[in-house]
Design a protein that fits this description.
With about 110 residues, this protein is an alpha+beta fold. A hairpin with a 5-residue loop joins β1 and β2. The protein has one domain: Roll (Ubiquitin-like (UB roll)). Helices cover about 15% and strands about 20% of the residues. The longest helix has 7 residues.
């Protein structure tokens, strides 16, 4: 398990236990994290699981793939630290990961 902290646009945080091998989106849905809609169910076919990855965690979460970048074009308030949470596989070394949720999804 890895602990992931989700911080919403009002700076309210929730820390959850997430299974290694699952995605950040799956952990959010399983724990009813507000602001992660995941309309496509993790197929990288929308931008409704958009999150921001804190700078310190970006080397561990990796960069967005070209397909993910294409979907982020539909996101709200996309920034360099934007990712789709459905595309971030949780590994053991992500224990303590912090992600921020935008004010709204696309």
């Amino acid at each position: 398990m890895a602990k992931i902290t989700f911080i919403d646009s009002e700076n309210k945080s929730v820390t959850v236990d997430a299974e290694v091998g699952s995605t950040v989106m799956e952990a959010a849905i399983k724990n009813s994290i507000a602001g992660i809609e995941a309309e496509c169910g993790g197929a990288c076919a929308c931008a409704t699981c958009h999150v921001y990855i804190d700078e310190a965690w970006r080397p561990k979460t990796g960069d967005a793939t070209p397909m993910e970048e294409d979907m982020l074009d539909f996101g709200f308030d996309v920034k360099p630290e934007s990712r789709l949470s459905c595309q971030i596989k949780i590994t053991a070394d992500m224990d303590g990961l912090v992600v921020r949720i935008p004010e709204r999804q696309a």
